[in-house]
Structure formats: C-alpha cells, structure tokens
Amino acid sequence: MAKVELVYWKDKIGGEIGRQESKAFSYGFTIGSHAEWEMIIANEDKEVRKNEITNIKIDDVEVPAKSIALPCPIMRHALGVVTSLASAGMPKGVEELRILNEAIFQALFDGEIKKGELLCVINVFYAAVERRLARGAAEKWLRERYRY
Q1: Which segments of 95-146 does DSSP mark as H helices, in order?
Q2: What integer is the mean pLDDT of 69-98?
Q3: Cβ atoms 118, 143 nearer than 8 A
Q4: 80 pLDDT band (50/70/90 cuts)?
Q5: Domain contains 65
Q6: pTM for this structure?
Q7: Phi/psi of residue 101, each to 5°?
Q8: Domain count, the chain
C-alpha cells in the first residue's frame, strides 16, 4: 500500500485543481478476448498547430464499470494523434462508470479539427480485478488457518 496524492481538475480541464490524499494498492486484472471499439469524435471546431498539444472536446464516451480503455495505435486523423482521454472531477476507480469528454491531441501538422471528425478509436475491454492482499496478509492467514 502506498500513500498517494490525487491531483485532478475540479470543474474543467485547465480550471481549478483539486487534491486528495488516498491509499493506493497495486493489483492486477484479467481481460477476456471480447472487447468493444468506441469512436472518439470531436465535439467542437478547434485550430491545431504542429508540435503542440491541444485539448479538444469530444462526444461523451462511457467506459463501463469493471472495464479498461486501451488505445488503438492506428492514426485515424490526418492532423495528429490522440495521446490521452480525460474528464474533470475526482478520479474514479476501475469499478465505477467513467465518462470521458476531452481528448488530448498531439498535432503533427497545422490545421483545423471540425466537429464530427473521427479523432481515434479506443478498445474497451471488460476486466476482472485481482486485488492483491497486503504484504504479509496471506502468510498470516495461512498460519492462522493451518495451526497444528
């Protein structure tokens, strides 16, 4: 377990920053062979400049509870690539529904993104979370259970 500080945008990307201390645990997950493709579509017109990163509002994309979103690494827009997806508000765990509404776009060329253009595609995989027991907890449990 690690003590971490979550730093997030409270109201909008680029707005007021919020901070909250939390306990974090490392854990794994298992994903199946079934996934869904979600299109990331621009929801505004936006001017982009070569070698600059720009936030672009997108149509809401739901990432269901107990699922993970992974990028599809094929360039889908001629002007650049989406490096990340985001939303404002307190970060949520993988166990909760998450709604993404902004793309972080790395422009490779100057130009204008138009509302309705496809920016990228993401893969959404349903996942089974495999939380690890705290260090030593498994050994303690086994000693208690199998005392002779």
Answers
A1: 137-145
A2: 91
A3: no
A4: very high
A5: yes
A6: 0.80
A7: -140, 10
A8: 1
